[in-house]
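Hi D.,

Good news: the full-assembly prediction came through. Inputs first.
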Amino acid sequence: MMAGGSALGSALGAQDAELLTVAEDVCRRARKAGADDADVLIGAGTEFSVTVRKQEVENIVEASSRALGLRVIKDGRVAVSYSSDFTPDALARFVEEAVERAEISDVDEAAGLPDEGYGQVDPASLDLFDPDIEDMDGDRAIDLARRCEQAAFDHDPRITNSGGASYGYNTGSRVLVNTRGFAGASRGSGCSISVEVMADDAEGKKRNDYWYTADRFFRNLESPEEVGRKAAERAVRKIGAGKVPTREVPVVWDPMVSRTLVGLLARAASGELLYRRSTFLLDLEGQPIASRLLNIVDDPLMPGKLGSRSFDGEGLISVRNELFREGTFVRFLLDTYTARKTDRRSTHSAVRGVGGTPSVGTSNLIMLPGPSTPEEIIASVDDGLYLTELLGFGDNITTGDFSRGAGGLWIEHGKLTYPVTEINVSGNLKDMMRDLEMVGNDLDFRSATVAPTLKMAKLMISGL
Amino acid sequence: MAKQPQLQDYSAAAARALFRTRYGIDERALSELLDVALSRGGDYADLYFEHRQTSSISFEESKVKTASGGITQGLGVRVLAGDSTGYAYTENLSMESMRQAAATAAKICDRRDRVGPVNVAEAATPDRYHIDKPSIEIPSAEKLSIIHRADEAARAYDPSITRVNVSFVEEVKHVLVATSDGRLSADFQPMLRFNVQCLSEVGSSRQTAVDGGGGRLGMEYFVEHPPEAVAREAARQAVTLQKGVEAPAGYIPVVLGAGESGILLHEAVGHGLEADFNRKKTSNYSDRIGQPVASELCTVIDDGTIDHSRGTINVDDEGNVAKKNVLIADGVLQGYLQDRISARHFGVAPSGNGRRESFRNYPMPRMTNTYMLPGESTPDDIVRSVKKGLYAKAFSGGQVNISNGDFVFSVTEGYLIEDGQVTHPVKNVNIIGNGPDTLSKVTMVANDFKLSDGRWTCGKDGQSVPVGVGMPTVLVSGITVGGTKQ
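Then the structure:
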């Protein structure tokens, strides 16, 4: 009954095997205590990070932690309890309390474990864990961070200050066991180098920016010097930034902000907002509502990528899902609960934190690249904005209204010119998707949500 | 219902007793751990013990969908060597595991000279949120009744209200801080938060709105704030948004209603005045103490002492007593919000603002309750003085870039002002400004101070802490509104 069980056993480390045993034990106890169904999620991890500032060590953080979450379903009522105390006595009490807690809830017919679709992609094939990542000591980490920061200072004399440069890594095990026979475990890692620097500007203002490199594998990180140089470049190009007049213009989105857009569209396509009728994508499945250049997928199966995973938050086997194909809105992302609420099938899109119930989320969320280069896209704009940053959270997913603080560079006759700040960009996501005129070929996977450079025909810029 | 041993009272003494009786953390253990922390040199070390119990009820479609909760506990050890921090934490409160965490944090230092044993003495703490019983000890039937009352009131408010979500979230934290200065501080920290979200549907037009509140209180919160009132407020806002016209785009006068608009202060100056940014000179308020940074009408305070408020603390998470700190007086910058490292750097006394999200994090300067003092005008005078502008009444949050001072906050209930009258509601819209510039344009301040009901959470560097905000009605003579209509 354990999908993927035998392939799993041989690949497990000793820690994961121990956690599986604990999770299986808690599941059994839950049944004995009266639960009809239960699942147990254990998250266990380590973290290590170093920050230097002006070449002095500012902090070093090192720790490991673990926590366990138990979801019980009894008579159609759901409760979730969490704990970080794994001693047998504590767990026994914990399970009793969890089952009792379910009595507070009301009966919910849609609640409960999935009936089908369980499985896990062999974690080894997904390249989630770097076995060399823990081969790092404080001095080496400090050196990486120092080099990164120094490269930023060396790159331009106008860089006069630093918010700090960091190196950090984390490792984590994720174990899920349920009363339907699913038992899955996988281990992942991640590391990054980052730096934030400042240049002085008029009136006491500082122009800051940052850059970073991130990957599951240490060997795939960009060099600290490259990260430092890029942060410095991005900061100095903001010197002299000011507001611009209020009007509607074409806007080119830098990849650091186009990924925000993709995240919003995925949120609008979530099953939770669907059954709550709180999304502007309601009733639009299968409709060609966007530019044909818009293609968005959620793909947990890409080896080595930050968002990859072998099973979803309910133990369903990871699958790739298309959200938008050539401008047609293909599907909502669903977990088991939202699928039942909306008469659909789960798209295996559950995510789950130890202390909560499953909800809908994304893995590697990608706007697929298009035919244009970023240079071509910028060159196509006679008078408009190159958007590089967004500030705030003024989005209304129910209506599609979009409004965020912004900054960037003005484009004149196809060239990047003066920096712009303290402006707001606004529009409606429905219009914005249709107004997508160009999509770049520049995808880079330093995040789980990624998108290329893109051009939107028009957005309202509020300034002076 | 819980089978955990019940505590006799809910106070600093109870917190002290919990760690002593349940985990054996007595004065000797504290002294030993501090000794290990300073075993490689180091100027200072502190131990932050936390036991945190949460409980929440999530209610939708007129039923309780999930009841959840749990307990975490742990120790965070911090060692300072000059301005460098070593930090480690553990969830395992066995002596062996705690010694290990202390040894790990000590690695920030590389000297071998030991400082010698440290003895701690308990310091008296204020009692700003004394409660008879935390809500987490109250049987769930009472809470379910509150939730049902909210659900019914929201649905009864208007036939267009088709969906109502209610959440009831509670927490109690027992905290113990021991420092190598010899201080021992304990605190018992309750927190309650109650939220209602409504969806209004008229044909194909759908709008959502949220309202809520809470604080460091028990069920007595609902005496002053009946659940029906919270529910009707969320429903009213959702219905009002149905009539929302496009918000203006451009640089116009904005009247901020009393209470929640304190977010303006939180973003415009609050973060920029956190001392770590100013110590590092990365804030646009660096080196500006004694200079005007706002109009003369502005006196801005960060106050950790307001009884029962969400942002209030008896002691901060470095063991220093919380205070009322005047940040800006009549427009002139007075000082920053300090943590221990920054206070030492600036040569001032700690201000009681060293806070952390949990034992897994080291502390940094954070706000508590941030507000502006009332002035002389009346709210009506202020609205009447505006020919064409925006009246902003309810908000959902904001964000700031402390280096350049640009900040935004989002308006969830706003109205056009036309010829001195509040007229049409507008759709949700963002306001974007720049700290010192915007505050210099506060040209009228009313006499109607209001502290926002407790629902705000501040994020900084990946750490969330609960905060409060407050404001009187004010006029900002010019600020950019990010609407869609020129």
